[in-house]
Amino acid sequence: MSDTPKFTVIDRRKIKANEEQENQQASATQAEAASAPTEPSAGPQLVVNEHKSESRAEAPSSAASEPSAGAESELPPAPTAKESREQKVAYEASAQRLEDIVRAQNPGAGPQPPVTFEHLVQQFYVSAMIQMGAGAQEGQRPRVDILGARTTIDLLGVLEEKTRGNLTEAEKTTLETVLYEVRMAFLELSSMISLQAMQPPQPPPPQGKR
After folding, report:
1. End-to-end CA distance of the chain, in Å?
2. φ, ψ for residue 136, nearest 5 deg
3. Nearest 5°: CA angle at 201, between 140 and 190?
4. Contacts of 132 (CB under 8 A, 6+ apart)
5. Where does the chain have alpha helices with state H?
6. Minimal CA–CA distance to 154: which of 176, 179, 129?
7. Residue 7: pLDDT band by 50, 70, 90 thresholds?
8. How far apart are CA 54 and CA 60, in angstroms?
9. Deepest in the core among 54, 165, 174, 210, taking most CB within 10 A?
10. Average pLDDT rounded to a whole number, residues 29-51
């Protein structure tokens, strides 16, 4: 065996020619990709200009903001201070005339007490309890509107949030007490409904022979 190393002669001209051919093919491929978006294609398309894609992505957000602006423009204009003042005077005069008519027909009836914040809270309380089945006559199955009761209770929560810091101590105590009671009633009723829903359905009673 000979220890003389073997050498391989490499033709650099062929390698350079192959590199030039590959570069031409790559340029042709890039040119086709650049012109691809102008032709209809169902497959993915190469994004050539990133700035255009960003402007297209921002377009839906600006378009989405247009409906909200349109919705605000659809709202009627707020009444002026003069219109509100005149309407309030007319409302109070009309309410007073109706009260005079009722008192003329019922001489024993006294004047109606002014409406206060406690009246508003009690109104929500009564509505929520009736929706949860309270007030049903004896022997009748109570009608429950659990979703309506939830809405009424949530309205009381909104009232508490929006009036925080503007109530007297008595008004605050009334609202907190009513909220606690209706929420407790809702928890008890919803637990009963959940237990009934988890129970397997009862088989129908056997029918008698004819």
Report:
1. 114
2. -70, 145
3. 55
4. 144, 145, 146, 149, 182, 185, 186, 189
5. 12-35, 50-74, 81-105, 117-131, 146-162, 169-198
6. 179
7. very low
8. 11
9. 174
10. 49
Which of 124, 115, 137, 134 minimizes the C-alpha distance to 175?
A: 124
**Token couple for 153:** 């209770």
Location of structure tokens 């049903």: 136
Q: Write down the pLDDT at residue 199.
A: 76
Q: How many CB atoms lie within 10 A of CB 87?
A: 11
Would you state the structure tokens that stand for residue 13, as one six-digit string?
A: 């001209």
**CA–CA separation, 109 and 111 (whole Å):** 7
CA 16 remoteness from chain centre: 66
- 102 contacts 112 by C-beta, under 8 angstroms: no
